[in-house]
Amino acid sequence: MADTDPAELERQIERTRAELAQTVDAIADRVSPKRVAERGVAKVRANAEHLVAQVGDLVGGAAGPRPVRVAGEPDDLWEEDRPDLAPVLIGVGAVLALGAIVMLWRRRNR
Question: Residue 62's pLDDT is what?
């Protein structure tokens, strides 16, 4: 065993205790129900924002301006229209509304 100063050993022990306390606090904070719920809400919010952005891009592209016909273009060049997104948007809205109702119902029944 190496010759070590007892005061140095006590400092190392105290430093190790402090590090261990910080680690335990970090673990407790990470697994606390409140923090888990906050992370879940943040993840759902981010996914919803991403979905809204994608739908916005689709709707913006579908409702965008039509190109002007130039003489000499074939007649069937712009014949293929994008599909109607109204049913999709109505379905997404219905799913979101139903999800909100279920969440409120569960929260009220606690």
Answer: 57
